[in-house]
Amino acid sequence: MLSNGVSQKCKNDPKEYWAGLGFLCVIMASSEDVGNDDDTEQKSTQPEEAKKSANKPGIATTAKKQPPPEKPEAVWLRTKVILSFWAVVVFLGLPVWWQTTSIYRARLPIQQMLEWSEGTACQPVLPLEIWVVSPGLVCEDARHVVQIAQEVLDTMNTFPVQPIRIRLAKSRPINDSKGQPFAEDPACFLEDYDPQSRHPALHLHLVPGEDATELQLSFDPHSARADLIYGEVSTRALGSGAASTVYNIFAEEQAGLAYKLAAQDNSNTAARYLESVPEDIRSAITARENRALKYASTYHLTFSLFTPAGSPSSWAIESALETHIQPWTSAFSIISNFSINSQIQPYSAYSPSIHPFQDSEANQTLLRRQDLSAFINAAEWPLSPSIGADGPTINFVLYVPSPSEIPLTIESSDGGSSWLIPQWGGVTILNPPLHTNELTGQPSVPRHLDLDTLHPAFETFTSQLLSLLGLPTTPQPQMTTTTTRRPPSPTAPSPAPLRLATLTRLRTLSLHLLTRSTLTSLAHLTTSLPSIPIPHRVASLVSASLSDLDRTCSSLHASRWGEALGHATRAWQDSEKAFFEKSMVGQVYFPDEHKVAVYLPLLGPVGVPLLLGLAREVARYFARFRSWRARGTGASG
Amino acid sequence: MLLSLVVLAVGAASTLATHTSNWAVLVSTSRFWFNYRHLSNTLSLYRTVKRLGIPDSQILLLLPDDMACNPRNAFPGTVYSNADRRMDLYGENVEVDYRGYEVTVENFIRLLTDRWDEGVPAGKRLGTDEGSNILIYMTGHGGSEFLKFQDSEEISSWDLADAFSQMREKKRYNEMLFMIDTCQANTLYRQFYASGMIATGSSEEDESSYSHHADNDVGVAVIDRWTYYVLDFLETQVTGPTSEKTLGDLFDSYDIRKIHSNPGVRWDLFPGGEAAGRSRRVVDFFGNVQSVEVQGNRTKTELWREDIAGLRGLIAEYEERAEHQERNQTKTYTVTAAVGAKISTCENSQTSRVKAMNIRDEIDWRKQVGGITVIGGLAAIWFLGPMFLS
């Protein structure tokens, strides 16, 4: 009898009992009757047992030897053992299990996050402020013109997101075309503005012209200013002319805003407005949006020179960048920052899958159009090395072919040699003038590319950069384009400051909508995936993002564009960080049967004796309590 | 009324559904020489999508082992998917993004959901957006609703489903084609619920996927049946990036007698269902969208040049004026100062966040101390208990 042996050993040697076999003992002790302490007791109880079994006929012959009754201290010891095991389980085991298996989920302001998508929170409105300066008009007339212009504009402008307000403003002294300052009526004191409160989107100057027969529009190239030159016209005609001028200037921007609202926010009103926009403008906007990179606060521009041979090995990159690229990057600095680097990679041919073919008639080599997307040798050209850098890289690749392939152009493109890869960068093939190598007598590529050779390529790069940044490039719909400052040009875009301001507003709205959708996604995610952990950091990022969203919205309402872009950028960055928090990769999913498979081997052998021991102990106490009560009632009765 | 709603919805969808880029995630999940075929499956797919025009920068290749350099390989440096050994899949130009022990369930989920440490290079990330079509191909050893990764862990259908739904939620794909070649493959896409997906697998529940043939010189099976016939279709029917073959054609080409298992397709998550899904071109997923815009028609270049020359002048003047304005308007400085203050508060909050992380470290430390105390206490009770009792 093993169990008896063990029990005996336990009783005989308490130290060993505690040190080695404690657990086994408690199992045995709880499942087996403790007893057989010493022989004398056994002997003393034997006759009683015999008597008891003798009372039952039939079993008497096979009667088992019964254990002696337990000593009270043995019973008490067993109770203590069981209780101490349960104490460890309840006070240590369960909390540790709970702590180590529970998933920390910080509380997120789900309701607030969803409010933005449900539209109950602030809706972005981008009111434009137009300041009209009319030095040539008397006060009454000027007010009348502005009033009419506003009325006409209100009927034209059906886009609720961008209301346009025309105000009469006090002008700074301006010069006419001959450099003479216009006389201004100081008595006509117009509404007083705090220049910090609202940024005017446009200064419209109503300039009287002597020889002008109708309304003429001219832009000031270096500020958000347009001159409307008028001849002998009525104030009504002037007012409605001013209104349609303003409307035409901002029509494309409105279409762009509507496009963003329709695409990012599923706004039905915006979609309906977009339907009313002429088809060519709409497709131009779609193309522009597909071409442009996603907004980033920093872009890295990489200019790379690749050539299959050893020359050219230098280029006038610094002066080329200074002339062509840097004016734009500094103008863009109100929206994004730029870092520029350049590299020369000789002995780098294009991708081996490209096979240009010879056109013997025109004596040139042609690239197939379908090959252009695979031209970049992604495996071997060290491009986009922005490891860990914050922000995307825009690549500009200048490829100088080997002398045998010069001139290398694209088939059926009328000598075109450059292409734009949307959201990635631009490629230009430069065919430099060849000269004869003195040693070999073979035609060869110059070793150094000077600025004059680079001009056309960098002009292309500039235009590619502008399209990749999403700058509106479609020509301004103009009513009459007799410009006084610049020679007329058929595709004259509106001046850069106006376009940059438009881009600022478009970017702000886009970021705002993006943030809203990210926060909504995060809210959906948290509710739909109960097993995903949410660290505290996410909660703080979300609340920062929410408050910046609010600020963006109020800045937009107040027409403070730069400030709005700042808030929108921060809100967007915080929301992205919150969504892509790296510790939010949920625990791998465990189906219930897996859980059972994990817990059963543990709970089976350990849990059963524990539970049984406890149950027996409780049952025994109940029995004792009952017998005590029975004895108590017996005594009283 | 209902009709107009439908029209509106279609209109909204048409403005949204623009497919601008293609990405491929090709995953083999098994190590060891006898799983040669899983790596050659994946490399074959890699060759195919490259041939059809997806650039390497948009292919994520996950190979847990390097068969080309395995000492048992009789043809070092090469991997073949056919006993005729005509085409070396490894070649000179293969870009493996995740190799060896980097191929884990966690990394795969991180890859899909883009939850990485800062500093993980762009080449290892899935840089997709709402205009991207994604092809996901997985192969390895699997079972009912799971796929084994590297003998040590497994990914379940639920894990994949949750990852895809997170991608959908964040608009990280336009359409997705999920392909899987493993035993009981069709069970792996059973739990998916994100819309915009087409899923196809090689075998039904309780059914094995079989290898196609072995190369006696290599010594192991070199390709799986289902993958073999999919590739067969892609190589013989989809000859170039302009192919008009549709997914319907691809799925109709499945021949159970050849594949020896029952391949499955799941359409119900795709908007438009089976009809729309079947009409998608194969190259919408296996090829690259032709998005290059050729510029530089000569006359246009002239115009551009003129234009840019003008604009450059404008910018110079603009800058000058901006400088001038800055000098004049002191108020702008107050604005920038306010912005600066805000930035600095942000920085403060960030530093406090960093501190919070430190606190977490302290908690860990405290936990350790706590743990040692508890264990020590228990040990003490263990040894001292008998003294009290005796």
What are the key terms here?
heterodimer; A: 637 residues; alpha/beta; 5-stranded mixed beta sheet; B: 390 residues; Rossmann fold; 7-stranded mixed beta sheet; 3-stranded antiparallel beta sheet; 13 strands; globular; disordered N terminus; transmembrane helix (chain B); GPI_transamidase (chain B)
Q: Identify low-pLDDT runs of chain A.
A: 1-54, 56-60, 476-491
Shape type of chain B? globular
Query: How far from one another are the termini of chain A?
Result: 46 Å
Number of helices of chain B: 11
Biggest sheet strand order of chain A reads 2-1-3-5-4
Number of helices of chain A: 16
Based on DSSP secondary structure assignment, what is the total number of beta strands of chain B?
13
- What's the architecture of chain B in CATH terms? 3-Layer(aba) Sandwich
Taken together, the total number of domains of chain B comes to 1
CATH class membership of chain B: Alpha Beta
- Sheet bearing the most strands of chain A, described? 5 strands, mixed
Overall helicity of chain A? 40-55%
Q: Biggest sheet of chain B, strands in spatial order? A: 3-2-1-4-8-9-12
Question: What is the typical, i.e. mean, pLDDT of chain B?
Answer: 78
Describe the structure.
The complex is a heterodimer of chains A (637) and B (390). Chain A is of the alpha/beta class and 637 residues long. Among the domains of chain A are: 128-287, 2-Layer Sandwich (Chitobiase, domain 2), CATH 3.30.379; 299-468. Chain A has 16 helices and 17 strands. A five-stranded mixed beta sheet of chain A has the order 2-1-3-5-4. In chain A, strands 8-6-11-14-13 form a five-stranded mixed beta sheet, covered by helices on one side. The longest helix of chain A has 45 residues, at 592-636. Chain B is α/β, with parallel strands linked by helices. Chain B has one domain (2-293): 3-Layer(aba) Sandwich (Rossmann fold), CATH 3.40.50.1460. Helices cover 45% and strands 16% of the residues of chain B. Chain B contains eleven helices and 13 strands. In chain B, the strands form three sheets. A seven-stranded mixed beta sheet of chain B has the order 3-2-1-4-8-9-12. In chain B, strands 5-6-7 form a three-stranded antiparallel beta sheet. In chain B, helix 2 (36-51) runs parallel beside helix 5 (225-236). Chain B is globular, with a radius of gyration of 28 Å. Chains A and B meet through helix 2, helix 5, helix 8, helix 9 and helix 10 of A and helix 1, helix 3, strand 7, helix 4 and strand 13 of B.
